[in-house]
Structure to design on (136 residues):
């Protein structure tokens, strides 16, 4: 018996967590049939790479992380070849965090913060890390 793929397990979990109907996800992703969502969820078909971004957004997950998951499972050799060039790519969550940090700093450079503000920010991140809120 074939083991369900990581992508299939992830998709099934996200569908459950979002509380969306498969029909809603299919419409948001531009799939003509909700059967495609069922087949992806069951691991019987792959997510078309051209749909990874819109499908990730429909699943309320980060498109880059989802691309990474799909590529490493579907085309591991290709992913291994291109991943080093993308290792510093910013996820949408990372960009969101950076925008807030820049706003708090009053400009584009966190180095513009005074020492007290930097210490407070480091305490915040240390606290989040200890709580397991930050995944490395």
């Amino acid at each position: 018996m074939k083991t369900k793929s990581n992508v299939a397990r992830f998709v099934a979990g996200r569908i459950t967590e979002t509380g969306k109907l498969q029909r809603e996800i299919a419409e948001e992703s531009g799939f003509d049939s909700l059967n495609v969502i069922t087949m992806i969820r069951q691991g019987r078909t792959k997510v078309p790479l051209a749909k990874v971004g819109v499908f990730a957004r429909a699943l309320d997950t980060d498109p880059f992380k989802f691309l990474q998951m799909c590529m490493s499972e579907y085309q591991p050799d290709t992913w291994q070849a291109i991943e080093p060039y993308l290792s510093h790519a910013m996820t949408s969550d990372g960009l969101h965090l950076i925008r807030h940090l820049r706003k708090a700093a009053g400009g584009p450079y966190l180095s513009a913060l005074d020492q007290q503000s930097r210490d407070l920010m480091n305490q915040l991140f240390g606290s989040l890390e200890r709580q397991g809120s930050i995944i490395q």
Observations:
- Residues 128 and 134 are 6 Å apart (CA to CA).
- The chain has eight helices and no strands.
